[in-house]
Design brief:
Blueprint: H1 3-7, H2 11-16, H3 22-29, H4 48-55, H5 60-70, H6 84-90, H7 92-101, E1 106-109, E2 123-127, E3 130-139, H8 143-146, H9 151-154, H10 165-183, E4 191-199, H11 208-219, E5 226-233
Parallel strand pairs: 3-4, 4-5
Antiparallel strand pairs: 1-2, 2-3
Length: 234
């Protein structure tokens, strides 16, 4: 970041977020712009153009709901995982995008349940002849991959032959958790969808055979009327 941005944290995003990124700029404007930990004053791990294009697909009401969810995480910088909670929240737009691509015309974020211990799914979509509820779950890099002594930081990356047991176990547990949320929805629907966003560890990202194995593994997890889709991120 340049010296001017370093001396005044409020100039960083104003300079780097032009008007053709209206939704990201709106998120920044609703955050604490004076915080030195504000994500938009620090760096940009997200591909901005791609993220803005996705957020632009949300209708105005849905964007306000997602923005208000995300804004609480804009200034939270975890020592190990940095701004992952912000990215995880914005990943819910991927679920909206998925429903839109499936032809659903009326898509809304579901209000949290007021019943103790009951967690609602994220989204509902409606179109002629179909109503779907969808829960977005993000699976991030492992803690070992993020550590200061992670092997990829100091040596050549070795691409594994298979998905790790830790990852497949995490996928199963995550799907089970999402299934509970989907089944808690009290109104009739003909589709219940788990949408996984998966961020691979270093090494796995370059192993294209692992993407095929992931696709085949996830296909085995669709059961009891629950559909499972995924989006692996490089």
């Amino acid at each position: 970041m340049n010296d001017q941005a370093d001396s005044d944290p409020t100039t960083g995003a104003a300079h780097c977020l032009p008007k053709n990124f209206p939704r990201l700029l709106d998120l920044y404007e609703h955050s604490d712009k004076t915080s030195p930990k504000n994500y938009f004053n620090v760096d940009y791990p997200l591909p901005l153009a791609e993220e803005e294009k996705r957020l632009a697909r949300l209708d105005s009401a849905s964007w306000r709901v997602l923005r208000d969810k995300a804004v609480r995480h804009v200034c939270f910088d975890d020592p190990a995982r940095r701004y992952q909670q912000l990215w995880n929240t914005l990943d819910e737009a991927r679920g909206y995008e998925f429903l839109a691509d499936q032809g659903y015309e009326q898509i809304e974020f579901i209000k949290p349940s007021k019943k103790d211990g009951v967690r609602s799914p994220d989204l509902i979509g409606r179109k002629a002849g179909s109503t779907a509820v969808l829960e977005v779950k993000t699976i991030n890099e492992s803690q070992d991959n993020l550590g200061e002594n992670a092997s990829w930081r100091n040596e050549a990356v070795t691409v594994p032959q298979n998905l790790s047991e830790a990852l497949t176990r995490k996928i199963v547990v995550t799907i089970e958790d999402a299934t509970d949320q989907l089944k808690s929805y009290p109104h009739p629907t003909d589709r219940k969808i788990v949408f996984l966003v998966i961020r691979f560890d270093h090494g796995q990202k370059t192993g294209w055979h692992l993407y095929l194995e992931l696709k085949e593994f996830i296909a085995t997890q669709a059961k009891d009327g629950i559909e499972v889709f995924h989006e692996p991120l490089l």
